[in-house]
Design goal:
Blueprint lengths: L14 H11 L1 H18 L3 E3 L9 E5 L11 H11 L3 E5 L12 H14 L2 E6 L13 H20 L4 E4 L17 H22 L2 E5 L10 H9 L6 E6 L9 H8 L3 E6 L24 H10 L5 E4 L10 H14 L5 E3 L5
Parallel strand pairs: 2-3, 2-9, 3-4, 5-6, 6-7, 7-8, 8-9
Antiparallel strand pairs: 1-10
Length: about 350
């Protein structure tokens, strides 16, 4: 129950007090008091509410292809067309070992994907890949490390062919919780191997005019803080090495709005992942749909605005809806519209 404070200029009177006033001064006084209290309560209600943020943010909406039932149910063309119809500005696509967009794809085939997206009216916001885990730059197997670097170089070439400048890079891993057979790597060894790999990639990034955006993971046991990420990125002294900031990957123990001011202009691309701190476990299935968690999105967006970020906000989600998978696209796009202040003011006068 809510109780009026002593500072409230018009507190609710207790029932016994009201009866006393009524007996002493008549029903008219009681009626006037109740009427005034009712009017005060009505005036205290907001006469209007925002359907979105009070401030409009000039950033672009994107969605990662993992949120689609691709390629099991939908073709890549259908994914692009549905993303456009849902109101997204871009799609982040995932590079694989085989398939439509993969290490097997020729330059011509990659260009065809770019043309397909252009025809659908949607941009490629960046290139991502799960291959950074089985072929981690820090892997104890030197052949797998070499393979990882080769794949990343091809991703840089593919990004150029797709007319996107963003290549997501996972620089290394002490631990990979989602790969049962992955051997742990000592911290100092992981750091050394990660730095060696990124140095090898910089010429390819320069040649292709793309950015190698280091992603913060946290669960990989490497680069735990924004200060560590800044030191790592700045150590290469190359504008080709930047940051792909992921809001959800740190939410189990930290807060994205605290990282953003420290990373600053280094942030070239972003994953928006929702997390609920009431969920005390971490795996790929514990991420949630946008707004169904405890992320302080107004603080995150304001922090991004303060550093001048105007790029893509890419929703990353690893399990498409089992039924009506298109609903996830439209729900996410709508949530981003609320967050970005794209929803018009909704008058509630008629509800009172």
């Amino acid at each position: 129950m809510n109780h009026p404070s002593s500072s409230d200029p018009s507190p609710q009177l207790a029932r016994r007090e009201l009866l006393g006033y009524s007996a002493a001064f008549g029903a008219g006084v009681l009626a006037n008091h109740l009427g005034a209290s009712k009017a005060h309560a009505q005036d205290a209600k907001p006469r209007s509410a925002r359907r979105g943020a009070l401030k409009r943010y000039d950033m672009k909406k994107s969605i990662n292809l993992w949120a689609f039932p691709y390629p099991q149910q939908w073709s890549l063309q259908e994914c692009f067309e549905l993303a456009k119809d849902a109101g997204f500005d871009g799609v982040e696509i995932n590079f694989d070992l085989e398939g439509e967009f993969s290490a097997e794809s020729s330059d011509a085939q990659v260009k065809d994907i770019g043309r397909m997206a252009e025809k659908a009216g949607i941009a490629i916001s960046g290139v991502c890949s799960f291959l950074f885990w089985p072929y981690a730059f820090s892997n104890n197997d030197p052949q797998k490390r070499r393979k990882g670097i080769e794949l990343a170089m091809r991703m840089a070439e593919a990004a150029r062919l797709l007319n996107t400048e963003n290549v997501l890079v996972v620089p290394g891993a002490v631990y990979i919780p989602w790969l049962e057979d992955a051997e742990p790597v000592p911290n100092d060894v992981c750091d050394r191997r990660a730095r060696e790999a990124v140095r090898q990639l910089i010429p390819a990034a320069e040649k292709n005019g793309v950015y190698l955006n280091m992603e913060n993971i946290f669960a990989n046991g490497y680069l735990f803080s924004p200060q560590e990420m800044v030191a790592f990125v700045d150590s290469f002294q190359s504008d080709r090495v930047q940051v792909h900031f992921d809001t959800g990957n740190i939410m189990e123990y930290q807060f994205p709005e605290h990282w953003i001011p420290i990373l600053g202009k280094r942030i070239k691309n972003i994953h928006f992942k929702e997390w609920d701190k009431r969920t005390h476990e971490f795996n790929l299935h514990t991420f949630r749909t946008l707004l169904d968690g405890t992320t302080n999105w107004p603080a995150v967006l304001e922090a991004l605005d303060q550093i001048g970020y105007r790029g893509y906000l890419t929703f990353e989600y690893f399990h498409p809806h089992q039924h009506y998978p298109e609903a996830l696209l439209y729900q996410t796009s709508d949530a981003l519209d609320y967050m970005l202040g794209r929803k018009a003011e909704l008058r509630l006068d008629a509800l009172h």
